[in-house]
Amino acid sequence: MLYGACWRAGRAMGYLRALSYILQEEPGTSLRAAGFIYTGMSRGGTWDRKGRSRFDKGPIEPKQIYEVEAKKARNVAISSSIPEGGVV
């Protein structure tokens, strides 16, 4: 339910695509129910680099990638609440 709500909110703001990365042991049931499609695996790995030390707080294993895209790109009209002349 939360994935679907996030995607609807994103579409309302003009987003055309959303991605989610989940752990290998997670089934992805909620993502599929919200219309996301499995698209592959990430490489995984650490954020730590020779020139910039990082401490990994989360799992560094490869993750499943799920994606959803808008069916059609649509123009979103943006209306301004500022009156003509720009004075509020």
Task: Describe, in short, the structure shown.
With 88 residues, the protein is an alpha+beta fold. It is built from 2 helices and 3 strands. The termini are far apart.
SS field, number of helical segments: 2
Gyration radius, in Å: 19 Å
- SSE string, helix = H, strand = E? HEHEE
- Mean pLDDT across every amino acid position: 85
Shape: globular
Percentage of residues in helical conformation? 10-25%
Which percent band covers the strand fraction? 15-25%
Distance between the termini: 39 Å
What characterizes the major β-sheet?
A: 3 strands, antiparallel
Helix-and-strand structural type: alpha+beta
Largest beta sheet: strand ordering = 1-3-2
Quaternary: single chain
Total beta-strand segments: 3
Structure description:
- With 88 residues, the chain is of the alpha+beta class.
- It has a domain at 2-49 and 58-69.
- The chain has helices at residues 2-12, 29-33; strands at residues 17-22, 37-41, 64-69.
- The longest helix has 11 residues, at 2-12.
- It is globular.
What's the arrangement of secondary structure elements?
Elements: H1 2-12, E1 17-22, H2 29-33, E2 37-41, E3 64-69
Antiparallel strand pairs: 1-3, 2-3
Task: Provide key terms for this protein.
88 residues, 3-stranded antiparallel beta sheet, 18% helix, globular
